[in-house]
């Protein structure tokens, strides 16, 4: 039932996006239509979308399913025929009762056009004595320029009106305030240029920092910081003026953005402020919430509650306080108290989990395959639970099962297991799991499981990280997820040579899970790290995946892990995480609203100007290479993004349509042959030279423009679909 509701909600949001986009295109084409009528140009069609007509209307003929063009052409033939009643009747209808203009809705909803007499004839030399006076070609150049510009002008007016309305009503958004600076990012490494003068010793942007200016412009919200970083030029730093609580004067930062491996955009590594309040909307599905809360260790905590105490500390401001408590815990439980508006409280004890290393295991430069590991020790995928349909359970899986083989992969990691299942989409996959038997020993259970077309068996995946020292093979090479970092060979690669080995001790210390392994490795290498040694060696005992010996014992092997200085430094820098993350809490927000109608006009003009400049800047950054082609979105991507925006509310959807309108105006007025800007340039040439471009040149330019448009459309659509399906 929940899946059906989600589907219906998504379809409803998609319908809203299609309607909104259609309205934006309608306004654009209305600009061409109105200016053509003003210029007394005969208009044959005013169309929304491309392809065959679904429904049409023509004055004098009425509504038709499909197009009425055939009936109209038949009238013209009759009017040009031999003398007689039929000809006179046809001429009478064409003289005023039947309009030459057909209003049509076409099958493909994206786009639209206005078809005018003479505009697409590609015979500009025919603009002579024989040209009909209501032809596009018969009109003076300045009038044709106005007609060509009409769509762009209407889109700008629409965007201005939308932004004025949105800011008059108010847009709920995140403030220009720092929630967290992610570790090892430009924001975390930055040092204020006036830090020494102001007595500031902390490195990096800090939680609670308020950004007053971004490149000398006051930001409206947090998104302005992200966009300014993404639009930075090659080698261009982002200049921030920051007010920090407790510091008398603003701090000045000059931060050089780096390319984010996941988004492929320039970024400085900051996140918005997340509150300590659990959103009320989680309560829409109480059973799902209680099941999830129990898994997270939040039994008794309800949506709408907020954190009021962390280890007895009540002076709290954001999720950063909870994260700081985890970092300082050393692995000890963190005592957290939640409360609601009625004063009901619920105390929980959250056990921190040791943070692992995270690197890219895919050698392809344009792909990122994050793997959580410890010096190359990667836990094995398990069954942590089941979805509502319990398809996985019905096929033979049980909670706690450890995958000994999945398809062709033995003891798969979480990443390898998910990819192997997806490779079998729509087919069955061979499964072998280790399951605790009645004797308490693990027993192998084999069966075939059906994989849905979406690449799912029907279970919630987990790993052995918290339950045992079972690991799979280390990747041969790992790449730190940051720009210009060199790949390295993980220390565990030479030590653990069989997938499914179980770590028993590290440096002589018995271990039972990855937390123990991390603690033992840290203790065994503490002296080497303190002395800045080039490397450290640690003895590891493990049980390889071999059959039990005849005497009932299991073979135990010993290996030495040699840890280089870089991996040693990363090991000792690892912190702690709580089972709950920032995703659980609502973001801090405020309503960006004008103080009155005049201020709404000012804000609308300012936002329209900024969005136009941003669109042109995006094109410039594409040429410079700081923005990649795969960051562009086509119709599929716009629709998908639109459904996400629509889920934030109608005001956000209206705001999104304002952005689309600005983008449509700018893109349409680029000097591309088949765009309005290209047509405008050709008219400018005709006005300056006194004659139009030669027909072969026009044909070649139009063909080149069409080829470019189709190529870009196919490329961005491919990127959209790949992102949508995780390709």
Q: How would you sum up this structure, described in words?
A:
With 727 residues, the protein is of the alpha+beta class. It has 5 domains: 1-41 and 120-170 and 596-727, no CATH class; 43-116, no CATH class; 180-273 and 587-592, Pdz3 Domain (Roll); 280-354 and 580-584, PDZ domain (Pdz3 Domain, Roll); 373-575, PDZ domain (Pdz3 Domain, Roll). The chain contains 19 helices and 32 strands. The strands form 11 sheets. Strands 18, 25, 27, 28, 29 and 30 form a 6-stranded antiparallel sheet that branches. Helix 2 (69-79) packs across helix 3 (85-97), helix 4 (141-169) packs across helix 15 and helix 15 crosses helix 17. The longest helix is centred in the N-terminal third of the chain and has 37 residues, at 2-38.
List the helices and strands and how they pair.
Blueprint: H1 2-38, E1 43-58, E2 62-65, H2 69-79, H3 85-97, E3 102-116, H4 141-169, E4 171-173, E5 180-181, H5 186-189, H6 195-198, E6 210-214, H7 222-230, E7 238-243, E8 251-255, E9 258-259, E10 266-267, E11 270-271, H8 286-296, E12 306-310, H9 319-329, E13 334-339, E14 345-350, E15 353-354, E16 357-360, E17 370-373, E18 378-379, E19 381-385, H10 391-394, E20 402-406, E21 409-410, H11 414-423, E22 428-436, E23 442-450, E24 460-463, E25 470-472, E26 479-480, E27 501-506, E28 509-510, H12 514-524, H13 526-530, E29 535-543, E30 557-564, H14 565-573, E31 576-577, E32 590-592, H15 597-624, H16 635-646, H17 650-668, H18 676-689, H19 695-724
Antiparallel strand pairs: 1-2, 1-3, 4-32, 5-11, 6-7, 7-8, 9-10, 12-13, 13-14, 15-31, 16-17, 16-26, 18-25, 19-24, 20-21, 20-22, 22-23, 25-27, 27-28, 27-29, 29-30
Helix pairs in contact: 1-4, 1-16, 1-17, 2-3, 4-15, 4-17, 4-18, 15-17, 16-19
